[in-house]
């Protein structure tokens, strides 16, 4: 039985004011657990995201024999190197997490035992050929459903050989899977991306004493590598902060401060777009944690104008497109989002779910082949009413924020999905609505 929860979100009608600490970055939390496990010695992680996706990674690493102690958002990982991982005696459950299944496919392909990766209904619909094919080129023995295209993925790990591979899509998950395989492979692995995807794996690898050379879109690493445990501090998740930035931009006279948010430039394309739209975003108190830029974000409500969003910027704001679409409903003019076909293979087809659900509550928005067109009407309120996250956390939170400009409350169906990346979302939204 799937537990389905309807949650009602209601804008308070008042300006949003206050200071918030965002939950830990999801991409960095996954990688901290995986690298802590394959390194030698103790790794501590401060600010680990206790969202369902990262918990899936944590449980998978435990099932592979790694000892991980938890105390709130603090982890202590007792890493024993790649050799310390052992054959799991059950299917590894990745839940709803694309990052978990793809990164672990690369890791497990080079380890000398049998393993199976499976997850929920959404994960079994997402393309896995993009990791299976290049891993097979490295000599891996792995299989997927429908001609090696979908999960479950079963793997008979073995010694691999390096490849020189051109990724067909700008995907950090594919790049990271191949890095995790390459780290265990003798010789030079070369990966060329068609566009720059998030580089958390490269930064984390260096924090653990590993080496990867990046020039433009080409990454080179020589294996095998020996990694050493370290202390990781996880910044707040920019993708979670995006929902609060949007809430402030939709609500006149709002002023929010979001503390210690990760500002990795491969993640913050949304800031570039918002500045073009006329938003007032200040980045203050800049620092660096384990090679990741971090700062506080100060956001004030401002009148916005429409923007064109496409090209190389898309991978840098891919997870923020649903919330950018909502922001664009409040901007003067027509916003066009293009080159975003990758959205069709996320937890849902996010082009369709964003357009259908925003339309349902009152937005003027159209679907296109590779994106969407949003007709902005500043000050025009939505009707609100029922809307469906379709089991997609980012759609659920976008709809909840839309309640800020809706007459009736927005009732989000399958709102439990929000806990995938932001379990404290509802409470923190309520905190600034008071
Ligand atoms: O590597 C990661 O942590 C992620 C990479 C992106 O996916 P792709 O690699 O499929 O673009 C992103 O959408 C996802 O939320 C997290
Ligand atoms: C696409 C996402 O995650 P994943 O691919 O890890 O499921 C996301 O968090 O928006």
TrEMBL record:
Family designation: Belongs to the EPSP synthase family.
A Pfam family of this chain: EPSP_synthase
Gene name as annotated: aroA
Organism encoding this protein: Sporolactobacillus putidus
Catalytic activity: 3-phosphoshikimate + phosphoenolpyruvate = 5-O-(1-carboxyvinyl)-3-phosphoshikimate + phosphate
Summary of the function given for this chain in its UniProt record: Catalyzes the transfer of the enolpyruvyl moiety of phosphoenolpyruvate (PEP) to the 5-hydroxyl of shikimate-3-phosphate (S3P) to produce enolpyruvyl shikimate-3-phosphate and inorganic phosphate.
CC terms in the record's Gene Ontology section: cytoplasm
Gene Ontology BP term (one): aromatic amino acid family biosynthetic process
Residues given in the record as phosphoenolpyruvate binding sites: 26, 98, 126, 173, 350, 394
Keywords: Amino-acid biosynthesis, Aromatic amino acid biosynthesis, Cytoplasm, Transferase
Binding site for 3-phosphoshikimate: 26-27, 31, 171, 173, 319, 346
Protein name: 3-phosphoshikimate 1-carboxyvinyltransferase
Origin: domain of life: Bacteria
